[in-house]
Amino acid sequence: MTLRRPAFAPPQRLPRRRALAGWLAASLLVTALGSQGAPAAQANGVELRTLDVVRQDNALLLNFIVQPNLSRAVEDAMQRGIPLYFEAQATVYRPRWYWRDERVARATRVWRLAYQPLTSSWRISLGALNQTVATAQEALDMVSRTVGWKIAEADQVEAGDKYYIEFSYRLDSTQLPRPMQLDLAAQADWRLQVERTLRLD
What we know:
By secondary structure, the chain is an alpha+beta fold. It contains five helices and eleven strands.
């Protein structure tokens, strides 16, 4: 299956796209990324290196690799043991000319990354799954890539219909300690996010 960015913005979602015009203007210049040497794209401190979707095992599966380029402020917070939350979200839509586009499916993954000072190790949590690694780079690698992530059942995407997928990856600063959230309101160092829209053929 080949995914390409839509040639046009779905008309029913124009208000949302106007609100995100700052990053959308740049992202529309980049084609959907694959793993075969496609150029990387970057927005707000996150480089999107690979993004593709395949049908397999009666499901729609998404694969992606991103590279967060952390600022000094974020790295310092990590070293102090402040947990960071990274979120990936994929939403499947079906365009409708007579109403807002139909949301067919949505999948979200949230990783919690935290430094453990007593053991000098890094702990990554994804739902009920937990893993400990020795270095910060290993921890970042684990929270920035996914293979075979089921974002929809195959029967939710009917043959012959047109669909598109909105993908986003970000550092969720809303889950930081509340005093930090107040201080970060105007700090660009903590705005780590990339978004992309793909057409499903």
